[in-house]
User: Fold these one by one.
Assistant:
Number 1:
Amino acid sequence: MALSARMKRNVTGWALILPLVLILIPFFVLPIIGVAVTSFLESDGFGGIIPNFTWDNYLTLFSSDLTFNLYWSTVKFTFFTWVFSLFFGFWVAYFLVFHVRNQLFALGLFLLCTVPFWTSNIIRMISWIPLLGKEGLINSALLAAGIIDQPLEVLLFSSLAVVIAYVHQLTIFMIVPIFNSMARIDKRLVEAAVDAGASKFDVVRLIVLPMCKSGIALGSIFVVSIVMGDFFVVKVMSGGGTASVVGAFYEDIGVLQYPSAAASAILLTVIVFLMVVAILRTVDVRKELS
Amino acid sequence: MVCLSTHEAHSETGDIRMSKGKGHTGHKNGSGGGKISRRQVLKGAAAVAGVAAGSGAITGFPTIWAQEIKDIELRHVGVSYSVVKAIGDQASADLGFKVTMQNLDTSAAINRFITQPNTVDIPDLEGWQAKLATRRGVLQGIEVAKIKEFDNFLPIFTKGEFEGSVVSRQGISPYEAMYVESKDATEIHEGVTEWATNLPQVYNADSIGYRPDLVVRPVTQWKELIDPAYKGKAAILDVPAIGIMDAALCFESADLIKYGNKGNMTKEEIDFTINKLIELKRDGHFRATWTTFDQSVQLMAAGEVVIQSMWSPAVAAVRVKEIPCTYAAVNKQGDKEGYRGWCNGLGLMRHLEGKKLEAAYEYINWYYTGWQGAFVSRYGYYSPVPSTAQKFMTPAEWDFWYLGKPSPEVVNDPYGVPMEPAGTVRDGGSFIERVTNISCWNTLMDEAAYMNKRWNDFKVA
């Protein structure tokens, strides 16, 4: 009897994950195996792949300063985007959960946060250009007010512009999971803490922050993996002034150097995977959610 | 059943023109055409259009029956400035079968031709793409004898010579990538044969665009682009294969280096060029780099830069916004200067056969009957068969675009939107003056993989 109950549970479990498995195997596992295999083959320089095993693609990758510089630049963007989107995401969620008393109103405001995301990423990014340009709104206003006498060039086609665009695009990915986990905090805990003499800051530091770690972790996974895997924002907002890991191997694909592009892609996958593992090591999302 | 009417020419390729406008007087066949009389209708329509355009006979009638071709759909795939919806619509109307235009960027296009050859019928190819695609065996040779206007093609393409001199072979000239020995050959052949990898359809000579009101002197040399006077106000094209050639033209112009072949550099030459670019970047010389037509227009129109490598229609697009912008006439001076030429051509994918292949030949022949040539000429590009394009242009348009004379009337773009006032003279002069001054062509170097890596060094520096 016990055995059959366990078997039944197993069958239910498998049935539940089956749809995901059916999607992941053909559309994720098989392609990535293909990419991994390609990364160990030779290119004929004309888009052809010669089925000879070689370490060359990886050796070139690891022996090149370019790889290091590209990762340094991409990780920098990831870090700053993470810090600012976490900062804004956290406080927006905090405001919605703890300061808006009417729950329905809070939900309404939360939905309002998503409104800008009904438009395309590209539109939201490009909208910054007329604002930040040499003859853009901000520079015109500062010039007219006499605060500066030369337009600030650092506003557009700079790393600053890249981070602004990313934070604008990705803060929602922080707000949603943090809002979610904050909303589950028992308000009586906060009351008890205040009654026991905790300051507002203490409440945030000792109760809210630890209890929405899982939301922060999930948001961080979204932000980190998106920025690490993106190249378009960097290309447009930096005015081509800097490069990104993906942008660089997209150029390889443009001239049909598939094996070296595949090696770069595998390396990036491994690095992003390790970053996600590191985040999950810090926060046990499963435990927090249960 | 046949009516002569003005129809809307829609542009979905936003990068050619910001605004859409009324098309010029064209023709379309009436809705009551029916299956059986379709062919007569088409003939009638084409004849009426011929009269309307004030031209002589039109060649390239459909030679296969309407019943057999009506279900055929040809997919013409390539970059937006070359594969234009309005042209496909006109071809569909004239030919009686459907032509669908699909746009991709250069690298996505070559990847699609090679990895999914069966999803494309007519690939739009630059010389270097034709070379790669031929090598991969995804193309079939075009039988030159089946191309009616072939003898009227300019010899720039068919023989590699023009106006009595040899066309530059720096980079991959259209002639260099044009021929193969047989229909199924996978090696480019040096010299004229009966089989073409692709046939040129649109081309131009690229140089520099600048703000005449903000530069210190008129620009006639590439070295102006790297002149310290324009520190923080210059931009360069960020498509590695051609961006590096623009840079090479600058450095050669400034006497910093002499290249063996700018279009196929050695590793040492690549290193020199990239290091020099990195030096300029660290000095803050470049405000930005650009990859799309629109970006180059925005950079200039928004006052971000005063000088940059640029395409002719992009300069016109800036001027339409009433911002002065000039296309630099960088005529050859000895071994230096000159325009960077580019050319896109039509190919035939290998999987085409039977009726569909016949339709593809009809389509290619249609391209050279003049409507398309006139269309592309109106945004500043050129037709490989100017003699037929001329028939679809007004004498004023011909004077302006090809002869380099002051236009006696307002110049309209392909969609009928005014773009230049009467009396304007085209920057760079006549067709012959511009084309004979092409000193190198868009390319893919043997060291492309190395060059790409070094270009990324420049980007990330």
Number 2:
Amino acid sequence: MKRMITIACLLAGAVLLAGCPKKATTVQPPTAGSQVGDSSSTSPSGGASTSGGDLGGDNSRGEVGDATGPLARKVIYFDFDKSEIKPEYTDIVKLSAQTLTGRPALKMKLEGNTDERGTREYNIGLGERRAQAVRRALMLQGVGETQITTVSFGAERPAAEGDDEAAWSKNRRVELVYLP
Amino acid sequence: MNRPHVLLAMIGLLVLCPRSWAELVVEVTKGQEDAIPIAIVPFNSPTEAAASFDVSQLVSDDLARSGRFKSMARTDMIEQPHMGASIAFDDWRRLNNDYIVVGQVQLLGPDRYNIVFELYNVLNRQRLLGYQISANKAGLRLASHQVADMVFQKILGVRGAFATRVAYVSVLGHLPNKSYQLLVADADGMNPRVVMQSNEPLMSPSWSPDGQSLAYVSFEGKLPTVYVQELKSGERRRVSARAGVNQAPAWSPDGKKLALTLSTRDGNLDIYTLDLASQALTRITDDPGIDTEPQWSNDGRSLYFTSDRAGGPQIYRVGIQPGDKPRRLTFQNSYNARPRLSPDESQLAFVTQEEGAYRIAIMDLRGRGDVQVLTRGHFDVSPSYAPNGAEIIYASRDRGRGVLALVSSDGRVQERLVSSEGEVQEPAWSPF
């Protein structure tokens, strides 16, 4: 059963890849995009719901395979105690918005995170604030409200370990994850 | 890849694991200079009882660990009386003891023991306590903590908290394969038991006032969910899995409600109360800033909480009746968060930032609101009062590792609890 879902995901991923432009900068024609989006979302998302919503970003990454693919997980990093999106990340927002508006059935989860400093529950609030900043930016570029969900892990899921700025700067982030 | 997560979560849910896990070891890092000298003479025990458990050693360790007492080493004892009548007081006085505890463990029947002990004031030879506690073999540890509690209370006038427990979160492994455990151990760090384990974060354990259940946040479904779990049976109930944030549960003093943090669709965190029987939800705060980390007052009529409505996080208090306006309590330093009220409501412990470090501070609630910073670490968070108010347990870091630490609420005694494996964080001291 599990294997069948995986195969279905892989197949859907292959369809998606085949239908996608090789260069991420190319704007997808809305009609073609939505068709591909529809076919990709029906089978795998059905599988995901039966297995408990546990098919997170790892799966979409595995599905798309290479890190430069349009559906790969992307990360926006933040300054200490800030939730403003820095200029170097506006491209990530723009491209993600194009992908999402081109495929209205596609869904994205925004995972907000903080570094370890401060209290755990207040950090949950800060992580949520960062995820919401990215959500607003995507919606300003036309992404439908129902396409985006947010979750905050606060300081609980660091990307790097260590009690220094090198680790902290990698942990203050929002991960943009396409849902299968 | 994903199935083991679900399985592990389910196993954790079903089993209150009886196996022994990594124990916490206590180191006293700063003792009290005027600690009271006391001699806990080894108890006379039948071989069977002595082999199973050293009652007097545990009493001695408990008292020494509190920092308020200096327990005499057994090797320095020149005689070992087991009852008051055979104490040579002058000898114990010459050895500079203020108090002495003598006793014996009697075998009453199969798996039935009786601990008989007496506490004397060495200076005036007065008998302060004479008591017996019966227990089976498995109960000897708890009974020993109770002996220490009684000695502590008789001499200091403060109820001992040795026979209580601490819940905490342990993080094992390294990225990307971390696993999380919610544990409950005895207050001395011994006897840890797993309440829940998951490959996703567990956080914010909160004790029910009767000490029977824990509320906590689990991300096992990749989204935050608040659960209430009964410790003995392991039975648990999902109490909040609303869209968005479900965080920071805090049990009301009557045990009927949880205060918790929820979010609106646009991610605004506010504090609510949830009636556990009716599921009725009441919004308490309504502000565009982050409102979180609620804690009840003893009368259940108001909540202390963290809010960054004025810019940085500060501590506020609000009545739970509709329309009450939050009042700000902290003004010193730009970061003050996660308030915890002392059991007698004379103090508020919280996390403050000074010199770029996060430390545990207390505010005097009866006088002029003076603030005293109690700790010297860089990442000291999650303070939680012992039910007698004498100590605060908190999470700290030691050489890049999460440890638990204790500080007496006057700052004079400091201790550290180090786990033999993994990292430990978010301690929550049980009620009596």
